[in-house]
Amino acid sequence: MQKAKQPCRAATLLLASVLLGGCATYHSVPLTPHSTALQRIDALHIDPHSMPLPALAAHRFDPSDGLDITETAMLAVANNPDLKLARDDAGIAHAQAFAAGLLPDPQLNLTGDFPSPSIAGLIPAFNRGLSFDFTSLITHAATHEAATASAQKTDLALLWQEWQVVAQARQLFVRIATQRRLAAVLQQALTWQTTRYQAAQAAMTAGNLTLGAVTPYLVAQQDIQRQLAELGRQQNQSRHNLNALLGLAPQVHLDLVGSTRIAPLNLKALRRATRDLAKRRPDLLALAAGYQSQEAKVRAAILAQFPSLNIGFTRARDTAGVYTTGFSVSISLPIFNRNRGNIAVERATRQRLKDEYQSRLNKAENDIDRLLAEQQLLEQQRSTTLESIRILQANTQKAATAYSAHRITLNLYIDLESALYTKQIEAINLDQTLLEQRIALQALLGGELPHQAASKTSTPIKQASE
To answer: pTM score, two decimals?
Structure first.
């Protein structure tokens, strides 16, 4: 009897070591009690091949000579805090897909009975059983397909979020560049208004002007000072917003360089690109993947209406020393439930996802058409404004010569300068609106926008799946 127990113990120990050998171990990951925002970007390495858009992937990241608009977008993709969370969500989705692909473990049941020592002739009894839920095999393929499609949806949603972060980085770059241009024009305007006010103040001191005549010049000067102060607050806000978007510490100073080109768009090429929007936009592809995941869930719910089946085999010994071998079968009777509630929920969810996809596609096409129409209107307005600036610049040059020759007054000369910088501010604001809308178009369409002058050689708009 003692010899017979030795192999059983050895087999038990071997089984336990095999089962425990594949188990995961716990390691604590403590929180970081201080800010981890990036303090320096010169040591940051960014792999262009990890970028979500062709224009970024073809660009070299080199912050040593300042950041242009493309490098700013690349830094946003690599270091944006929200994107890091989205990538964590993608990791969770892939882990869930992995878990859905695993089969359930069989169940081992062990029971023992120990008779009272006062009863002679009886021995300890036991019951061993091994069972498996075969119903899980019926729904396994559909469940795994649903989880895989859900992970694909998360990846595409991450790609769409990267597109949005790229657009936000570009728009903040344009906003900061625009604010710098506005500050230069306003500073020049302040110089002219200060000159006029000082001249009027001197004339009033000499008794040639009244206080009422001088006051409008003071008000004009103070108005420009107010605009400069407001612009300074906007610049501070834009700088902090950009640093936060890029995952940088607030005190990091960015040297933004370069400019963006404004050229007429190739509207025909853009409208052609709108036709295959559903094959290229990551958010639409993500919704399609989510719909496919829901299709699999509907199929799994229908398969789950079949009776659940659990089969097991048993080996037992009673207290009299009699050994028995048998089996157990448990099956549910689909009389009342039949999983009809879950089927109804999954079908209703599928219908909602279908409507959401169509609504998003319709809205995307409407947004693109609206932006294209606004681009045409803005380009016409910008062309008119630039023509006015050219005329005013020519008149101002003539006025400067006439003022030097004492043929016109200082007030007339500065009035022409004021009209010029007013139009220049209008043109700068139009440039900002045009560029921000084009960035929005890039985010809606993907890829670089084709221009009329370079429509045959411009970077083609690629699909998100590429």
So the answer is: 0.81
